[in-house]
Amino acid sequence: MVSLAEKRDKYTKYEKARIIGARALQIAAGAPVLMRTEEIEPIEIAVEEFEKGVIPITVKREK
Description:
Layout: H1 4-9, H2 13-28, H3 42-52
Helix pairs in contact: 2-3
């Protein structure tokens, strides 16, 4: 079984940017934040969520 931390390390820099950008857009549009944080900026919240592995976004790849 692959842990979230191992799975997160397998994202390319482009996938990571896309995930964080999409999540930041959701937060800016009023989506609930998935963890307690002191951050105010949507992008900073999204980065923190990504680092903790709580973002409910996945990447589909062709095999």
